[in-house]
Every structure is written in structure tokens, then in C-alpha cells.
């Protein structure tokens, strides 16, 4: 479960945000729609406490992230939150497999290569595990990002514009993968996007 209350943030006096309260129960999905520049990435980064709000709270299950220290927040995030970034961030010197198990390492969990291979099979990049991530197509990298986001069976999956550069067929595929994976592990799924194609796929949605 993720719930926010009265979240505000500013990059400076000229760029201030007051975000609507959101609630997403376990196993549910929430779509946050907004045009370019309305603050979607900023909001998603606040949900993960990658940015610290000026005021307000972000509660995941029983924990108010805004009450944690920076070190506690990083540890909590690594264990409980899976993030699919707008642009995938990988360690370029590592293989696809090692990028996946790195998520376990960062969460202080045993490296689960069996799960990594299972996910790669389900998401259709099983043949690429020994390659470096830059040797994969953009769509393949996106699927690796989704796999990495679920490697620690997180309580919350946050996805930033996961379909913006994809054609209709791959958009359907990526949305299905995100929903299947989050349902499989019982996580809450929150997607921020300007992609109007997604608005009919998600029952719960808010507009920024
Ligand atoms: N580090 C920063 N410093 C100052 N302003 C910023 C910073 N990051 C973002 N902004 C501004 O805040 C606003 C919201 O940015 P954000 O990236 O959250 O929007 P977005 O809705 O995700 O946009 P897009 O759909 O184009 O990715 C924009 O006007 C942007 O220029």
C-alpha cells in the first residue's frame, strides 16, 4: 500500500508543486497522467524518496518514508520499491544477469540467479543474459528494467513513462508485463505517463 498526503516540493521559488493525495492498495494499479512538464517524474521521485518533499508524507505499508534518515530511506527503497526509470540506468561494465542480481546485492539479499533467469524467460530476453546491456535494443532494455524492478519482490513498483517510445504492440506488451509481474508478487503498481493510450487500460487514474 502506498499513500501520500499533502506532498509539496520546489526546485526553487519559481518552480513549486503541490501534488494531489494518492492511494494505491496492494495488488492494485494506479495511472498518473499528465502532459510534459507537469511534474510526473518529480512526483514519482518523491514517491520513492529519491527527492525529499518540502512537506507532506509518503507512507508505504506502515512506514512514513519522510521520517527516515537518508541511509534508512536508501535501505528501505532497495528492499521494498522497484523502479522502472524513464531512461534505463544500468552498470555498463556488467552483464544483463549481473545487473539483475545487483538489485539483490543492493538490498542486502542473497543473489537469486534462478529468479533472474526465470524472469528473463518470462520477459523474453533469456538469450541475452551474458551480453552487456548496451548491446540490447531499447525494448529489450525496458524489459530488463522491469525484471530488475521485481528482483526483490517489492511491495511497490513505480514506472516512469514505460511506454512513451514504444509502438502499440510493444506498449500492450509492456503494460501486460508490468501488471502480470506486480500481480504475481502482490505489489502496488504506479505508472506515470503522458501516454494517452494507457488511460483505458487502468481503472484507477488521476491527472496531474
Ligand atoms: N533539477 C531541476 N531543477 C529545476 N527545475 C526542474 C528540475 N527538474 C525538473 N524541473 C522542472 O520541473 C518541471 C517538472 O519536471 P518533470 O521532469 O517532473 O516533468 P514531467 O511531467 O515528468 O515531464 P516529461 O513528461 O517531459 O518527462 C519542469 O518544468 C522541469 O523543467
Automatic annotation (TrEMBL):
<keyword id="KW-0547">Nucleotide-binding</keyword>
<dbReference type="GO" id="GO:0005524">
    <property type="term" value="F:ATP binding"/>
</dbReference>
<dbReference type="InterPro" id="IPR003439">
    <property type="entry name" value="ABC_transporter-like_ATP-bd"/>
</dbReference>
<dbReference type="GO" id="GO:0016887">
    <property type="term" value="F:ATP hydrolysis activity"/>
</dbReference>
<dbReference type="GO" id="GO:0005886">
    <property type="term" value="C:plasma membrane"/>
</dbReference>
<keyword id="KW-0067">ATP-binding</keyword>
<protein>
    <submittedName>
        <fullName>ATP-binding cassette domain-containing protein</fullName>
    </submittedName>
</protein>
<dbReference type="InterPro" id="IPR027417">
    <property type="entry name" value="P-loop_NTPase"/>
</dbReference>
<dbReference type="GO" id="GO:0022857">
    <property type="term" value="F:transmembrane transporter activity"/>
</dbReference>
<dbReference type="InterPro" id="IPR003593">
    <property type="entry name" value="AAA+_ATPase"/>
</dbReference>
<dbReference type="InterPro" id="IPR017871">
    <property type="entry name" value="ABC_transporter-like_CS"/>
</dbReference>
<dbReference type="Pfam" id="PF00005">
    <property type="entry name" value="ABC_tran"/>
</dbReference>
<dbReference type="InterPro" id="IPR015854">
    <property type="entry name" value="ABC_transpr_LolD-like"/>
</dbReference>
<feature type="domain" description="ABC transporter">
    <location>
        <begin position="2"/>
        <end position="206"/>
    </location>
</feature>
